[in-house]
Every structure is written in structure tokens, then in C-alpha cells.
Amino acid sequence: MREPSDVRRQRILAVVRSRGSVRVADLAAELEVSVVTVRRDVEELARAGRLRRGHGVARSVGPVEQPPAPAGPPAGEGAAVALVVPERHTYLYETMHGARTVLEEAGLRVALHIAPQAVGAERPIVERALADGAGGLLIAPRWPTAAEEEADYAWLAGAGVPTVVMERRPRRGSALHAMDSVCSDHWYGMHLAIEHLVALGHRRIVLAARDDSPTARALRSAFAEIAEERKEIEDWAVTLSAPGAGSPDAGGAAAGPGRERQAGAGGLAGLLREHRATAAVLHGDVDALMLVQQLADSGVRVPHDCSVVAYDDVVAAFGSTPLTAVAPPKAAVGRVAAELLVQRLARPGTGARRVELLPELKVRGSAREL
Fold first, then answer.
1. In this model, does residue 53 exceed pLDDT 90?
2. Across residues 116-123, what is the average pLDDT?
């Protein structure tokens, strides 16, 4: 969801006042918007006399504000909290800002770190943040494959500072099982999607999903489990929602329930026709909007010929046909994770907690009754 310009400009002012001067490029990276957008905001704020603009730099018009020290800082000396999220991950945008609000209200300084799309990118970032004095860690690792997830367990468990994993559910029995974590209940989210479609009379459903994150893997597993158990569902299939979104097991070439399928030359429209499917669940939003357009190009109209439920609800409402979508509690995940970390910093001896928050279904115009 795009942040309102007035809110974004207030955040720019807060950063500039706290640091004295900030490069426009750095502001853009921290706010996850384009340099052009930040430059336009800075120009507007400069015209209003609220900051001074230099060559690629925004400067405070007054003395640098020092954040007040919290009364009784948690866990020692009010050190910064490192907040680590993947680059270009719109899903975690609201999660990150939900966490930051809580931490700043607690009087803690937030050091945001963006992990690039590279194997093992988070570890050196975390090690550098800890070397710089971070006293706590909130992290949403990318973990594009299960193997990369497993490889991170040992070093992350040994980080040595209070840590909360956001929107990830480490494997049971792993080194991170006893670490604080906050995650959306994606099984329940998929249940909402399938329940909605079944209630509308759909009996043949396809899932087009990514396979390059823990969320994607959880959704694929949940869909297969629920579809297999629902007696009303006559046929189902799973395919990739976008090229490069992972590598599903396409070993089974035979049609029928329980098979992961390559969409083939006919794309999603061809797979829908092959299974005589009347509905699809699409993950995530950007892929969903593109797939809806591909369906239209193939003569498949949404919702007239195929009902669609998207999963993520970041931009699902902005399509030419607003998409019914499952909305994980993204901001709430960040807020609860930050609250756990603040509590952990204040009371280090408390037991670890694994929290799951329930998604909700946003009904719009992309699914209809048969």
C-alpha cells in the first residue's frame, strides 16, 4: 500500500531533524521509494521553509534533535535495534513500518538494513550491525529455498542479542524453534480463500503461486492439504505464478489431484482449460494482476469465466477488476514482533514465544457464484 505523501514528508522531516543532514539517495533507500519521489518531497518541504535543500542533500533548518533517552531503557544503555528486511519486498513494507512505530515509541533507535537478493546476504549485515553496537534484532530473512533457510539457523540462533524473526516460522526442532517469532497463519489464509470459492460453488481450483519464500512454500503446502481433504473439490493443481519464482516439482505429468504442474505453452489459461477449473488462487498480488491480464489476453474473463482470489492484498484492489484477496496482518506482525523484542530487552529471562496472527478475506469483484 502506497504511503500518503504527507506521512512520508513527516518521516523525512523526522530523519533530517535527528541527523542534521541526509543524502536524498539514502532517504529513498530507507523509505523504499524512488529518488525522484524523495527529491520532489524535499523540494516541497524546502519551499515551505521546513528544511534546506543542497545538492543531493536535505539539511535541517534548526538544531539537530536528540531523541529523549527512555526512562529505564530496556536491556542496557538504549542501544539501537537492527531491523533487517529484504530489498524489493513490497509484502514486508507494512511489517517494517509497524515494527518501527513501536520501537520508536519505546524510545529505541532503529537502524534499518536492506538485505540484497544474494545467497547468505543477511549474515554479514547482522554481524556488522552487532559490531556497531546493536542491542536487539528484528529480522525477516528472504530464505528463497528451504536449504538456505536451514543454513541460516545456526548462526542466527547464536546472534547473542535478543532477536525476533518476523513473518517466518522456523522449522520445528530447529535451532530457531525456541527463538521469538511472529508470523501470519498462512494455512488459515489459504483456508479462507478455498472456503470462499467452495461456498460460491467452485469445485475445480488451480493455485498459481510462487516458490521462492517461506510464505510461498507454506501456501503451496496448505493449498494441497486443504484441497485434498475437501470432499467438495473434484480436481486441483498447482503451478508457478511467474517465471523465476521458484522451481516446482513437475515430475508428475499425469493429470489429476495432487499434481504440481508446469503451465506450459498455454500458460495459466491452458492449465485452467486442462483441468476445467472455474477458479484460481493467485500469489502474490503483482503476479496475480499480471496473470489476470494474461487470462484476458487468452479470452478468459475474470470473474465471468474464472473467479480469482489473490493472496497478499498489497495492490490487489488496484486492478482494473479489483481482486478479492486474502490479507495477512502485515503491519500487526511488525508491531507484535517489536513489542516482543521490547519485552525481551526489558526482561531477558522470559520464555520464548511463537505467535501466529490470522489473515482476513477482503471480498471485492473478482469471484462470483456459479
1. no
2. 89
At which residue does the C-alpha cell 500469489 appear?
283
Separation CA 60–CA 16 (nearest Å): 6
245: Cβ–Cβ under 8 A, 6 or more apart, which residues? 209, 210, 211, 212, 216, 287
If you average pLDDT over residues 77-100, what whole number do you get? 84
204 by DSSP, 3-state: which?
A: strand
Number of other residues whose CB lies within 10 A of the CB of residue 154: 11
The pLDDT tens digits of the residues spanning 203-229 come to 999 999 989 999 999 999 999 999 999
With CA atoms as reference, report the closest residue to 238 among 203, 271, 212.
271
Cβ neighbour number for residue 199 with a 10 Å cutoff: 11
pLDDT tens track for 187-206: 999 999 999 999 999 999 99
Three-point CA angle 75, 80, 83, nearest 5°: 115
**E strands, the chain, where?**
21-23, 52-54, 57-59, 81-86, 110-115, 136-139, 163-166, 180-184, 204-209, 235-240, 259-260, 279-283, 307-311, 324-327, 354-357, 360-362
3-class DSSP assignment, residue 4: coil
User: Quick count: other Cβ atoms within 10 Å of Cβ 70?
Assistant: 13
Q: What single letter denotes the amino acid at residue 143? A: W
Q: Are strands 57-59 and 52-54 parallel, antiparallel or unpaired?
A: antiparallel
Beta carbons of 195 and 188 less than 8 angstroms apart: no
Instruction: Give the angle subtended at the CA of 107 by the CAs of 102 and 108, to the nearest 5°.
Output: 80
Within 8 A by CB and 6+ apart from 216, the residues are 209, 210, 245, 246, 283
Q: How far apart are CA 194 and CA 180, in angstroms?
A: 30
Tell me phi and psi for residue 216, to 5 degrees: -60, -45
Residues 6+ apart with CB under 8 A from 20: 59, 60, 64
Instruction: State the Cα–Cα distance between residues 356 and 366, nearest whole angstrom.
Output: 28
> How many CB atoms sit inside 10 A of residue 106's CB?
19
